[in-house]
Amino acid sequence: MNKKISRLRGMYDVLPDESWIWQRIEHIVEETFQSYSYQQIRFPIVEKTQLFHTTIGEATDVVEKEMFSFQSRSGNSISLRPEGTAGCVRAVIQNQLCNRGATQKLWYIGPMFRYERPQKGRNRQFTQIGAEYFNVESAHADAELILMTARLWKNLGLPNIQLEINSLGTSQSRKAYREVLIAYFQQHSELLDEDAQRRLLTNPLRILDSKNPNMKEMINNAPLLSDYLDDESKEHFQQLKSILDACKISYKINPKLVRGLDYYSKTVFEWITTDLGSQGTICGGGRYDSLVELQGGKPTPAVGFAMGVDRIVEIIKDLKLWQNNNESKTYLIVDKEVAMETAYKLSEKIHQALPQLKLFMNQNPTSFKAQFKKADKMGAQFAIIVGQEEAKSGKITLKYLRNKEIGQQSFEFAEFVSFMNKQQ
RNA sequence: GCGGCCGUAGUUCAGUUGGUAGAGCCCAGGAUUGUGAUUCCUGUUGUCGCGGGUUCGAGCCCCGUCGGCCGCCCCA
Prior knowledge:
Elements: H1 16-35, E1 39-40, E2 46-48, H2 49-56, H3 61-65, E3 69-71, E4 77-80, H4 85-94, E5 104-113, E6 125-134, H5 139-156, E7 161-167, H6 171-187, H7 194-199, H8 216-220, H9 231-246, E8 252-253, E9 265-273, E10 281-287, H10 291-294, E11 302-308, H11 309-318, E12 330-334, H12 340-353, E13 359-361, H13 368-378, E14 382-386, H14 388-393, E15 396-400, E16 408-411, H15 413-423
Parallel strand pairs: 1-5, 7-8, 12-13, 12-14
Antiparallel strand pairs: 2-4, 3-4, 5-6, 6-11, 7-9, 9-10, 10-11, 14-15, 15-16
Helix pairs in contact: 1-5, 1-11, 5-9
The chain binds one RNA strand through α3, β6, β10, β11 and α11.
């Protein structure tokens, strides 16, 4: 008879000991993206299932077996978004943000849902932050997005992150390569595992990603995508590389880097950490020039990326990169014998005069000793003591808990305010 | 979707060949007449994840289930 209802598998609660990390990441992301003049866009968590099928691709794992799909009351199939680009593109088309050649630099943050087996760095509800740059065809746009993410890692203070890039080519050159690749794999069909057999005609590029040791040699000898790039794609890729070189962003060209979502073309990139085990990609993205048209909009080149906030939080926690400074700095210690009205009058006066001050007030006054103990455990810098003497005199007694030499002082209210202002 | 490990107080864990639970930390109170971080004393806490089975008897054995971790897979 267990009446407790537990949370769903792969979902989680963010508790106060961790929420401050999320808040700080969100704050830094917002500042960084704004400094590059990207504007926030917000779009629904639920969309028509069809949107994800046409955008992400029928043969992808995300669509085939990882979507939270269900029937709406009117009988339509709707789904929780498994990623952000689909909804963002839909919103751009529907609200005509790119009409008459307008460019857009957009970013978003929010929960995404995929029905997967939970693991470190992989949850069923997870938070992604993404940015999308619409209507610039040249690699300058790709470069800006990569530079902006590099700036973000710097601002967040994340170490051990590497950039990998590749070019998938235009959809025409990819089509040509695809046929060569299928032919090659068919020659070696006796070596293909079950997974590869299944993907041979739906998504042969993904076979290159396989870690099956039996297929390793065969894959290593497979024709390379880079040999089949057309001039336009080569030129585009070269442009990106020379900007990255100029800005001293180091990268590795990974010719086997192919993204799992169908809509990518030309540039693809990933930021990878070695600190998270097997879920090491913290940010991935690329160009998707044909997606807007595929969704029924006017042809609009675009490029974007998404990053997993949960994974970034994990790194910051595991490596203990940050310290919490969101805790109360000042603890209001109230004598049991002092009327709470007096204490509240003072605390409101303090909030009015020092709006930045993080004041903790104990609504259940116990002994002085116990309150001091609590203030200490909480990491408070100061204790304001409201005892019977202070209630009579109207003065403020302030004790500096972190420095015995300064110790305890008595102030008039105005003196107290200017003292605290100096401290902050 | 596949494979492996795991689930005992708030927490970290112990629990002998099956005989219905224990420690450290934390928390609360006190030694200290209005004052913390050291020390000492005292005290609270569990349907042993949940359900079923075997047994005279199950935290321990078996089955199921839920949840977590790790690998595959996938991806951010």
